[in-house]
Specification:
Number of domains of chain B: 4
Oligomer: heterodimer
Number of helices of chain B: 13
CATH architecture of the largest domain in chain B: Up-down Bundle
CATH superfamily of the largest domain in chain B: Multidrug efflux transporter AcrB transmembrane domain
Structural class of chain B: alpha+beta
Shape of chain A: elongated
CATH superfamily of the largest domain in chain A: Multidrug efflux transporter AcrB transmembrane domain
CATH class of the largest domain in chain B: Mainly Alpha
CATH architecture of the largest domain in chain A: Up-down Bundle
CATH topology of the largest domain in chain A: Multidrug efflux transporter AcrB transmembrane fold
CATH topology of the largest domain in chain B: Multidrug efflux transporter AcrB transmembrane fold
Strand order of the largest sheet of chain A: 2-3-1-4
Number of strands of chain A: 4
Helix content of chain A: over 70%
Number of helices of chain A: 10
Distance between the termini of chain A: 23 Å
Radius of gyration of chain B: 31 Å
Strand content of chain A: 5-15%
Shape of chain B: elongated
Largest sheet of chain B: 6 strands, antiparallel
Number of domains of chain A: 2
Chain lengths: 291, 508
């Protein structure tokens, strides 16, 4: 305990370099990514608009991919299988191509007719609408972020700790996006919902930490940090494990929930770093300086 | 251990009991036997006798029906038959006796286990987001559009539907139509047709659809019927006709226009020189001869006719019936003042929906178990760990209770919202639990009070960050925001204070 506390007292400012470097690298990555792709992440058809066809028959997806990828734009094929038997139940084909054309092409490949509501389902979103949805959801995140910052400022009535909360939530989202981009995961509306959830979780532990460090007086500063750390780490790890388990269960059954859980698992992972290194160091610095 | 429970814990218990009641009903729906009628053809004799949507069938020909399987079995054995058979259908409230050659024109389903309504993405059906083509709609225009659409869909016998106005952050207004169990093809057809009806003589419009020109449309068997079928070169066609009553203005217009026409003599009789042309969405439906006697006369009674074609006589008959219904609907409801465009059309298969719920339940249970294990390992307090899980589960029960009370349709975003609530809920409970095991000098009560300061802070930040979602993206993610807001509010107001009292009791 003493050794640890001594180490932290000596190096907490240096530790701040780790998230700082990561943030700078992430920003650089995002900048390059934006230059190449014209956006902050790859979007799936729920954000770009397009057609999604679900076929409730056995389909050889490898063959489908190789045959149709030249005909259908941005083709994406997913499998849905039974949880226990691992038997294929359905195939979801997504493309930005026009709905009728996609249906025809698919029917030619499958050699049978696709009947809506019987052996298949169709989902179509116009691209203009999706574009506006997408912009609005980004605005929603920005507004959410702004509101969150105001509430935090009202709670603590001091600028530096409030900024620390906002920075750490921002870093969570930024690093999550970078990792998702690196893994080549396409973002959907569900992902945006997950980002909002992530803001909530991130702020939870930050508020706990800030309250314990700044509003309490008992024990030494390090003791209070350690106490908050124990509580916070339990909170985050419990959520992380619960989501990880849920992720394995819903994986390849529900694309929507899979995306939500993936974003949360990655995000909570980064939140451990950002709360317990970034935020702790900033707050410790602030608290010691105030003394 | 015989200590009195605090009012906060009692409140929690009472609310959980109420929620269970609201979810399962009284007597519990899962104990009910029979099948529920989900849709019924308005032409059928059963409908005329009073069987309606929502009726629960318990007996068919004295054989008890416990589930869908029983019902299907009986109907398969009985129909189709060559002779009309007497069929007795007994529901919970009354009995219906009909003579039928084919199985009754109704759709039945098993009685659902709970009163929770599932959203379209879980129950299956079709959904369309609609806007006007090349025109932005004002809120009042969307209101009118919704009235006409609802009217029209009801005329078509679709009742399990939702037609809602939605708008987004940029101020665009849309109409959202959700029909459970409908095929998207129907929905597309219904929406894409403007339903513009015009009756013209030459280039002059005599009357159009809607209540301004049409006083009433006959739909009874006597005044609206299929007149007969005949074979043509391409197949069969059947003619239909029905009577309508024109308003005074339209009748006068009819008189003025026909007055100018000449009379032609033909071997079949004397008719006016021009015909009455009926157009539906600018397509010619039928051309009617106008008899000599109508020239210049103010008449309100007019017969409208048309035909349906098909490869077989039966098909032609069905098509004629459908065409007639469509024409009648358009004449009653009138046309939309603009063309509509579907911007988003979704269909979801209900079979996947059912399995889906199982998967979610499994995921939820396993996740809760995992939480229990972690909490137990961390705090080594079996009672407190169990109380934590109990609190979390009752939070979910109360959310579901509220959802079924306000008829909230539980869709996928709502389920994500419940997850978010569970997640933050467990976080808060850990803060409470953790604060209670601290070995500092101030009282337990004080410590728990301080924990609530943290919890309220977290609550308000979550609350405000959800607000934009109520409007963004035409409110399609509203389910997430609403359920989370309901969930976390129940959490900080009811369940989490109750949990804090539970810990206090364990501490004493």
């Amino acid at each position: 305990m003493k050794v640890l506390s001594g180490f932290h007292d000596k190096h907490y400012k240096t530790l701040l370099l780790i998230p700082l470097i990561l943030i700078v690298l992430s920003l650089a990555y995002m900048f390059v990514f934006y230059q190449n792709n014209g956006d902050f992440f790859k979007k799936d058809i729920s954000l770009t608009g397009g057609t999604s066809i679900t076929v409730y028959e056995k389909v050889n997806i490898e063959e489908l991919k190789t045959t149709l990828s030249s005909q259908l734009n941005d083709l994406n094929v997913r499998e849905i299988y039974d949880l226990r038997t691992r038997e294929q139940k359905a195939v979801i084909i997504e493309t930005t191509s026009d709905g009728e054309f996609a249906k025809q092409t698919l029917e030619e490949f499958l050699n049978y007719e696709l009947k809506e509501g019987e052996n298949s389902d169709f989902e179509f979103t116009g691209s203009a609408l999706s574009q506006s949805f997408y912009k609005q959801l980004l605005v929603a995140i920005l507004i959410a972020f702004f509101f969150m910052a105001i509430v935090v400022l009202i709670l603590f009535r001091t600028v530096v700790p409030s900024m620390a909360v906002v920075i750490s939530a921002f870093a969570d989202i930024l690093m999550t996006l970078v990792l998702l981009n690196m893994l080549g995961i396409k973002f959907s509306t569900a992902g945006i919902v997950a980002l909002l959830m992530l803001i909530g979780y991130s702020v939870d532990t930050d508020i706990l930490l800030t309250t314990r460090i700044l509003k309490r007086t008992e024990g030494t500063l390090n003791r209070r940090i350690l106490g908050a750390f124990k509580t916070g780490i339990t909170m985050t790890l419990t959520s992380l494990f619960a989501f990880l388990i849920a992720l394995f269960i819903v994986k390849s059954f529900s694309p929507v929930l899979t995306q939500i859980f993936t974003v949360l698992v990655i995000g909570l992972g980064f939140d451990l770093l950002n709360t317990w290194i970034t935020n702790v160091s900033i707050l410790k610095w602030y608290a010691l300086k105030k003394k | 251990m015989k200590k009195k429970l605090t009012w906060k814990i009692w409140l929690l218990i009472i609310l959980v009991a109420f929620s269970l009641l609201s979810i399962f009903g009284m007597p519990p729906t899962f104990l009910e036997k029979g099948v529920v009628v989900t849709s019924i053809d308005s032409d059928s004799s059963l409908f005329e006798q009073g069987l309606s949507q929502g009726s629960i069938i318990i007996l068919v020909d004295e054989i008890p029906i416990t589930n869908l399987e029983d019902y299907t079995k009986i109907m398969q054995e009985k129909f189709p038959s060559n002779n009309s058979q007497k069929t007795t259908i007994k529901t919970k409230d009354s009995e219906y006796v009909v003579l039928l050659k084919d199985a009754p024109q109704i759709v039945v389903e098993d009685i659902s286990n709970s009163r929770i309504k599932l959203g379209l993405d879980l129950a299956g059906g079709a959904r369309a987001l609609v806007k006007a083509e090349n025109k932005s709609l004002t809120p009042s225009e969307v209101g009118d559009l919704i009235d006409i659409t609802r009217n029209r869909l009801n005329e078509f016998g679709l009742t399990d539907l939702k037609v809602l106005p939605v708008s987004d952050l940029s101020g665009n207004h849309f109409m959202l139509i959700e029909i459970a169990g409908a095929t998207p093809k129907d929905l597309k057809q219904l929406v894409s047709e403007q339903g513009k009806f015009e009756a013209k003589i030459g280039n002059e419009t005599v009357f159009v659809g809607g209540d301004k020109d049409i006083a009433s449309v006959s739909r009874d068997a006597q005044n609206s019927r299929i007149e007969g079928c005949s074979q043509s070169q391409e197949g069969y066609f059947c003619r239909f006709s029905f009577a309508i009553t024109l308003s005074g203005d339209a009748a006068k217009r009819h008189a003025d226009i026909t007055d100018k026409l000449e009379v032609n003599s033909t071997p079949e009789g004397n008719y006016l020189s021009e015909k009455l042309d009926l157009y539906l969405d600018d397509k010619l439906v039928d051309r009617l001869l106008i008899s000599e006697g109508l020239k210049g006369r103010v008449t309100t009674q007019i017969a409208i006719s048309g035909s349906g074609e098909g490869n077989t006589e039966e098909e032609a008959y069905e098509n004629a019936k459908e065409e007639m219904k469509k024409l009648q609907t358009v004449l009653i409801t009138g046309s939309l003042p603009y063309k509509l465009e579907i911007v988003k059309l979704d269909t979801i298969s209900p079979t996947l929906g059912k399995e889906f719920i199982n998967v979610i339940l499994i995921a939820g249970l396993v996740a809760i178990l995992a939480v229990l294990i972690i909490i137990f390992i961390r705090y080594r307090k079996i009672k407190a760990s169990l109380a934590l899980i109990l609190t979390t589960v009752s939070e979910v029960i109360i959310i579901l209770g509220v959802a079924s009370l306000i008829d909230w349709n539980l869709d996928l975003p709502s389920i994500a919202g419940i997850l978010a609530t569970i997640g933050t809920g467990i976080d808060d409970l850990i803060v409470l639990l953790d604060e209670s095991v601290h070995s500092i000098t101030i009282s337990l009560k004080q410590r728990l009070k301080r924990a609530f300061a943290i919890i309220m802070g977290a609550y308000f930040t979550s609350l405000v960050s959800l607000l934009p979602l109520l409007w963004a993206g035409a409110g399609l993610l509203k389910g997430f925001a609403i359920t989370t807001i309901i969930g976390i509010s129940i959490g900080v107001l009811i369940t989490r204070p109750a949990f804090s009292d539970m810990i206090k009791r364990f501490g004493e």
